[in-house]
Please model this.
Amino acid sequence: MTVEFPALALILLFPALGVVFSLFFGRRFGRGAVNLVGPGVMFAAFGVATWAFMKLLGMPSGSALAVQMWGWIEAGQFHVEFGLRVDALSGVMVMIVTGVGALIHLYSVGYMAHDEDYARFFTYMNLFALSMLILILADNLLMMFVGWEGVGLCSYLLISFWYTNPQFAYNGRKAFVVNRIGDAGFLLAMFTIVAALGAHGVWTLDFVQLRANAALIGAGTATAIGILLFIGATGKSAQLPLYVWLPDAMVGPTPVSALIHAATMVTAGVYMIARLGFLFAMAPGALDLVATAGAVTALFAATIALVQPDIKKVLAYSTISQLGYMFLGVGSGAFASGIFHVMTHAFFKGLLFLCAGSVIHALGGEQDMTKMGGLRRKLPITFLTMLIATLAIAALPPFSGFFSKDLILEAAYESGHFWLWILGVITAGLTSFYMFRLIFMTFFGESRVDADKEHHIHEAPAVMTIPLIALAILATVGGWVGLPDGWLWGNAFVRFLAPAVGTFTPAVEGNAGVLSVVALVVSGAGIALAYFFYIRLPGIPMLLAWRLKEPFNLLLNKYYIDELYNLVVTRPLFWVSDRVLNRAIDTYVIDGAANGAGETVQSSAQVVRRAETGNVEHYVFVYVLGALGVVAYYLYLVAHR
Amino acid sequence: MTAELISGAIMAILMVLIGLNLSLFLLYFERKGSALIQDRIGSNRASITGFGKRFGMPNLGIINTVIADPVKLFTKEDFVPDGADKFLHTLAPFIALFPVMITFVIIPFGDTISIGGHKIDLTATNLNAGALYLLATLGLGVYGVALAGWASNNRWALLGGIRATAQMISYELAMGLAIVSVIMTFGTLNLQEIVRGQGGVWFGFLPRWGIFTQPLAFVIFLVAGVAESKRVPFDLPESESELILGYFTEYSGGKQVVFMLTDLAEQALIAMLLTTFFLGGWQIPWLMHDGFHLPGGAILAVPALAVSILGVIAFLVKAVAVCVFLGMVRWTLPRFRYDQLMRLGWKGLVPLGLFNVLVTAFVIVATGKVQ
Amino acid sequence: MIPLTYMMSLSAIIFAIGVAGVIIRRNVLVMFMSIELMLNAVNLAFIALGSRLGSMDGQVIVFFVMTVAAAESAVGLGIIISVFRNRETVHADELNLMRW
Amino acid sequence: MPPFLYLFLGALAIVSALGVVVQRNPIHCLLSLISTLMVIAILFIGEDAVVVGFLQIIVYAGAIMVLFLFVIWLLNLQTESGPTGHIVLKTLGSLAAAALAAELSLFLAAPHLQVKMIQEPAGYGSLESLAGKLFTDYLVAFEVTSVLLLAAVVGAVALARRMPNAAGEGASDPRAAGAIRAAQASSRVQG
Model:
């Protein structure tokens, strides 16, 4: 059942107000006001979201809150409402976005304390929150697409926030362009859906009705739609082959990386696939594609993350790999598990980025891990929270990551993708390795910090540490809502989500205990290896790097993927547009047409201009003749009837 | 139908006569009143017999002004300067006089009286669009002076004509605005209705005259009216010291009489309009159809016919009083400079008038009197 | 009431006279007057038809025509003045700068 | 309106309209135009368009024509010689105009144009009815018109202002003529 709940509009209204305020009055009212309003609206939105979520919990399973704001598009039978809808799925997402978003906004107050452009920053941040919330709350695909584009825009704006640096601006453009490719897929998918349903006289993009009429779509069409949607998702969620923008996106301010490129936006793809799960359920081919892409991406990114020296780069690749996990989860048909990992990941990855930010903040912008070390005494809170987050991402019980990742791997196995499960397990090991490598290189050992930076290393202010602590708690307990079945309350999360995204039906029976133990062991092995490498025998990494030079460089240079794309896509594109379009078509065809038209007009004008005697009498005379003609015609008409 | 026509014609003639007589009174006041104000004796030579003084016959100057002046002027040569546009030169005075004369007919000078069963409205033409008619005729008043100035092929005359035209048009605007606000207050264009609307009292004693409902409009109308009739302090068009006699420099004889008559008649007209719009026309304070309702609450009955007649008398008295006032103004104030005149008109009266209209509109809407 | 045809014919004739005026006269100002003539002819037609059809719209349109005519003559005469100031003439056949 | 009156007025209108065209002296043309306008105004009133008729007198005769008068004075236009230049064209043109008049009357006399009379509602042509239309159906147009008038005032001022040039002539009289008249006309209409 669906209940009218107008308060949902407030969730959008508050960030919108924040945008307006920061945009138009931010400078005038000064930093204090902006620092108050920017996070304030997010907390307000979080409050409303909590209210709605509680109401939702109170209602019987499978029910939803909704509000129709206004009719948006009316074209024949096809019409789109501008409506919001909160069911279990979007409820969870909304809680994540507003909650984590609010914390990160609060953190930003401290992080951007020394930046001149605070007003612009919070404008973009609130705008992003607004778009993301639209994306989540949308009750139809088109509106979701609006949010989809909005978050893309904000991501671009925020990546190139420090636009004075051309490299940063370039990275922003790169992210935008790559996202466009995915968006094209999304759009095509939408068109296909409309066409496919329209053929049966159903003109709608509304999720509920889509679900109701999904049966009308043939399997083949469904597969096509699924693949297109998947392309869209890869663009937004940085999966192979469209992941290249995410690592470069790290040039943005760290809170941005935490909010957009870890916690919320990049999970939009997962959310979208889960939201349209009923379509994918009809297209197993597409699902397999998703799962495979997810697993491969996970492993691929994890390997790159092994050797990266830049702390944020490591986290970026780890994000990609974790997203791969989520795709693996939803690809295996366990949408709830995917979303579960989205949630836990939002907690611990957001936390990781914030900690990294606090480290960078403390070191005055230093991001190279080889220039860190021994910070655990200087930054105790950061160290502790980051350790918790690392344990969570390394999927050690009882931290949140364990439960979600476990579910995913289990689903991957039980859905019959044995090899993908293997990949997932290996990735788990790699994950714990590179994460602890990060921890050890940053916080343990002797300090390698530049002398000039040494002195002003300081723990971040409270406004930054409070979010860290809050997220740390969440990263710890966040997973407990989804305990393995049979334990205390069992997997409440999946049960809660089941009506919205359907339940996972195993294809092959697997022993959950064994699977999780295997994964656990591998993770532990990773940690041990890391400890061995970076605490016990710090020489070994160099040795390995020297011995296995080629693989090492391969990893260091991220498999030369950027160069590959540059060679395969960018160069030819430039060549075509320069040689063919510019020099040939533009010069001869278009200019020719334009000039030709001009010359034609001119030459004909040479003839016609004789009529312009510049003498009023002539003009009037001609006009009178014309009038005569007209009236004569009417007289003729009158006469002949 | 015919009866109405006849009565209308009669009353029209009556009205015109009233106007002319007022003009004559003004002429007289020009002479003796000015003398009185300026402590002169004034014109006192001519009298009926010619030896008035000797027989100690009272001589109020009536004779000179009402008879001797016109006779003198009419007997002068009717001179048309060389190179003048003869036709227009002759036509101009009458073009000037015509609108004034035809304006008299819409002025109500009394309440309806019933004679032998006929109910007769004591106004020549009970025009529903009376105020518009008034504005139209006022607008036409320009042409006489303009053409006079142009047709008599004389620089001073032309200058006077231009001045007169600009002045009259500018002040017509202010006057129109004042009239508009009056119309808005009484909710009708019909002058008779406007006068009726001014009957009755407020708080038991204050008569509902326009001067009390629209004081600002009254002031504007007064000033603009004086300017309309081109009298001191607005007599720039005929200021002797600068332009010999303004637009009728080149006029003599009968035509000059016509022009003078026009001026006086205009003044009389302004007086009557002031009376009609702001001084309650033929209304007498506290006098209802059945008699006086004094503030105390006492009532002394008056027969209906007597009421009507009293009304007519009241109208005439008020008109004469206003005429006297205008004359006194004329002999009291110095003359404006032309730019001062224009500034007063465009920067003073017009904005004031607009403001007044605005306020009136607000009040009307606020009091919900809008239909 | 006067037959409609008469009114219309009257307005047609006045209109034609205005047209002729614009063609014949060389004085821009008089041309302008002729244009006003045409406007009034059309107004007459509007009023006549309106009263025949018992609708006020004709009168409203006439009202607007008057307003526009006021604006138009204000601006037009301003133009004439400035033209005269530059070219020392108001004769249309001497004002043919706008030719090829 | 009795027929004889119509005939008289119509003849008067045509004669004075011709006067506009044929007279040599601009002032005389102007006077003929004014008389045409007055006659047409009377015809309006005869057609029960009382308010519009008076407005015609107030606005056209009272304001716009004075504006013309002023311009004629300002340019000091004299009696002009007979029609010169493009004589052929002009004769042809007047012939064409005559033909146009004939055609129009023929066309308008055509039976199909005989609209069936609709009885005028009570208060037809009164200020109330006009204002009712103006402030309900035509409100937007009305407001736009006021903007137009404002623009006209500004335009007239801008056009007629004499730029303070090397000769050092002041900018007084033409502006006075242009601006004051324009403002006059416009406020007249609105008032």
In short: Residues 2-37 of chain B form the longest helix (36 residues). The CA atoms of residues 188 and 194 of chain B lie 7 Å apart.
